[in-house]
Amino acid sequence: MSKQQSGFTLVELVIVIVILGLLAATALPRFIDVTHEARRASVFGLAGGLRSGASLAKAQFMISGSVGGNISMDGTPVAVNASGYPTGGATGGIVSAMQGLDGYTPSGTDPTTVFEPTNGGNSTCRATYNADLGTVVVLSAGC
To answer: Distance (Å, rounded) from C-alpha 48 to C-alpha 51?
Structure first.
């Protein structure tokens, strides 16, 4: 009685392993840059939140008829300037309006607030808020 064995030979297994290694070597460089892309997207997301927060504070300011000082956004007091935009600085109204900045560190003095990522932030990866104009500028070259 002859028994026929089935399976892969050692040569076939080695060839498959070599092919998988080549595929991994060509695909790996594409995934190395994912961290930088994620940090860049996060900075742009924060910038959108800053713009929304400034616009909502300005709208609340106009609705309430305030002339400066503080407004209330969801029960949180937010300091605003005479134009109705949240004040700047590391502890300014824009920081209160954001109601949480996980992963970002605010710095600066009124009217400017700089938001840099806590992990990997630098002078070319940040969002800058200007309280005088209510504008946000994003620098993402160094993310």
So the answer is: 5
Token pair belonging to 105: 């560190």
Report the b/e string of 38-58 with b at 16+ CB within 10 A.
ebbebbeebbebbeebbebbb
Does 48 fall in a domain?
A: yes
129 belongs to a structural domain: yes
Mean pLDDT value of segment 31-56: 88
- Cβ atoms 93, 44 nearer than 8 A: no
Q: Count Cβ atoms within 10 A of the Cβ of residue 36 and give its class: 0-12 exposed, 13-18 middle, 19 or more buried.
A: middle
The reported pLDDT for the residue numbered 85 is 93
Which token pair is 44? 């742009």
**Whether pTM exceeds 0.85:** no
Q: What residues make up the domain containing 111?
A: 37-139
**pLDDT, tens digit (0-9, with 9 covering 90-100), for 84-120:** 999 999 888 999 888 888 889 999 999 999 999 887 6
Domain count, the chain: 1
